[in-house]
């Protein structure tokens, strides 16, 4: 805890990508629901690990006093995480999200999705990824957009469209199929709340604007200034069900964490290890295939971020108690000597 503010100080280190930043901020905010925190965010460039761990001084923007905890995600964060542990003499508790592809012992704690298949004493495996979804955030976003939401009566179907990744492709043929299903639903007086991601191909965004620009029951938000503030959390808050493309761990987890039935639209490609996530979500009745109809069923919100935050704090205080006990033993030894 900071001696001046009385708050638990957390630094976060990401690489600027929305999916990475949301995981880090989600965990930090969840910890903030349990105790007063002060969060400082850093976006990491890509230094060599050697240049950091051999440095006599930290980077100019990373100044003492060192935080109680630092949370990192993405490969760019890893050199900073390892270096801060060194610079702080191990006093800063380092939490890495996702598999770091390095020895687990380089970090105090790792929170990784089941599909990363990482097993170690300092690893917590969770379903999907940590995220910023919470009842408070969903309620606040619903209130912020309430006037526009009223223009789109239920039933409401949120549609979250990803795109191309290392493993998946949103082809023109697949999008033609998806668009046909969405047009049919729009014709049934179902309100569609559609948003895209940074990976969504340009032809998809252009087609969505062209097809739905005059539709009174379609709210389309594409990441551009002319669409206004991002209603993503509001979409999740008010939707009766959510269509999500299969390429994104974060988007699938967000929808399940909001307590919504998830209808997954499969993209081309090899799911690889992500098939573990899909199977787990299907097994726990969060996900059904999207066949073109809106369907709902009872869903309890997936609450993995809170579980991760609780375990992170438990591990932090366990290490702190152990260090204090060690210091006490050393002091006793000094006195007796």
């Amino acid at each position: 805890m900071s001696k001046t503010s009385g708050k638990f100080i957390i630094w976060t280190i990401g690489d600027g990508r929305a999916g990475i930043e949301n995981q880090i901020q989600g965990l930090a905010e969840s910890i903030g629901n349990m105790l007063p925190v002060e969060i400082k965010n850093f976006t990491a460039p890509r230094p060599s690990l050697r240049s950091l761990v051999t440095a006599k001084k930290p980077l100019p923007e990373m100044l003492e006093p060192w935080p109680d905890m630092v949370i990192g995600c993405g490969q760019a964060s890893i050199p900073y995480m390892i270096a801060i542990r060194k610079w702080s003499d191990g006093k800063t508790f380092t939490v890495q999200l996702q598999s770091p592809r390095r020895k687990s012992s380089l970090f105090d704690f790792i929170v990784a999705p089941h599909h990363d298949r990482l097993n170690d004493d300092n690893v917590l495996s969770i379903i999907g990824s940590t995220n910023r979804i919470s009842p408070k955030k969903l309620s606040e976003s619903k209130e912020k957009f309430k006037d526009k939401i009223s223009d789109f009566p239920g039933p409401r179907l949120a549609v979250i469209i990803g795109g191309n990744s290392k493993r998946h492709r949103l082809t023109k043929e697949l999008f033609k199929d998806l668009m046909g299903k969405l047009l049919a639903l729009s014709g049934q007086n179902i309100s569609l709340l559609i948003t895209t991601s940074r990976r969504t191909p340009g032809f998809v965004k252009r087609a969505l604007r062209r097809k739905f620009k005059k539709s009174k029951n379609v709210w389309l938000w594409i990441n551009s200034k002319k669409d206004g503030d991002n209603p993503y959390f509001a979409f999740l808050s008010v939707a009766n069900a959510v269509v999500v493309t299969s390429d994104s761990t974060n988007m699938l987890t967000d929808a399940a964490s909001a307590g919504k039935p998830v209808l997954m639209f499969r993209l081309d490609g090899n799911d690889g290890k992500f098939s573990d996530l899909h199977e787990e979500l299907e097994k726990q009745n969060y996900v059904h295939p999207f066949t073109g109809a809106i369907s709902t069923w009872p869903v309890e919100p997936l609450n993995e971020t809170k579980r991760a935050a609780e375990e992170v704090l438990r591990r932090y205080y366990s290490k702190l108690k152990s260090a204090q006990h060690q210091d006490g033993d050393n002091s006793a030894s000094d006195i007796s000597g």
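Residues 265 and 320 are 46 Å apart (CA to CA). The chain has eleven helices and 14 strands.
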